[in-house]
Amino acid sequence: MTMTSHRETPAPDLRCTAINCSVGRPLGDPDLDRARRLGLDRIELWWPWTTPEPSDSQVDELVEELRRRGLTLIGLNFWGGDTSAGERGVLHEAALSQRHLDAHARLAEKTGADKFNLLVGRGGRALTDAQRDRIDAVAASVTGRGLGTVLIEPSKGAVDYPVQTLADATALTGTVPGTALLADFWHLAGDGGTEGEERTDAWLDGLAVSGSTPGTLPAHVQIADDPGRGAPGTGVLPLRRWVTALRTAGYSGDIVGEWVW
């Protein structure tokens, strides 16, 4: 894979604690070398197979590969359909199968990953009752096994995706036990211009006041610059200021680089 150096290395004044090894890659083909290039050993993955139901041996092979490389898996997506073709989850059409939930749990249990991003499906701007029920079922499966937290992420770009804003996400996380906010600054910034930056600044200003309130802070954070979804410093987003504000508000979790290489 040919890589451009200006996207590989974040600006020296903004360091990530983990890296996403799936963004920009074909479905089911993560680049596990990314962490080494950045001197990191913590990673997150989108669903790492082209099928929602890998065999136990496939799961175990990935676990062994992570161990061999000295990598710690901190975050894992659920099956999201063919994300390379624009799908963002399948819950608008069907529930995640029990075999998928079992495979997901097997990987989480063997690696210690405890943050799980759930794409809810492009079924329209409003969630259907069926989608809500299916989100509830996934969260119940995770919490029932004691695995961790299901993440809900505001996502830009698809007009028929029902979780586009912080308000959309917190409406879910406030009513579905076992879920929490995933804040990706690239998504929160919107489609360019100052409006998205102003909204993000306003949200962070609010966290400065309410950050100590349980459930207010995000459970997981990702960053990339804009335009281009490159590494910090390749675009115009005030990522250093935003991350500093988030830390000041009390966020102590990972800052994950999720940029296109």
From TrEMBL:
Q: Which Pfam families match?
A: AP_endonuc_2 (PF01261)
- GO terms under biological process: glyoxylate metabolic process
Q: Does the keyword Kinase apply?
A: no
The UniProt GO MF terms for this protein read: endonuclease activity; hydroxypyruvate isomerase activity
Boundaries of every Xylose isomerase-like TIM barrel domain copy: 32-258
The alphabetized UniProt keywords are: Endonuclease, Hydrolase, Isomerase, Nuclease
Official protein name in the record: Putative endonuclease
Look up and give the organism this protein is from.
Answer: Corynebacterium terpenotabidum Y-11
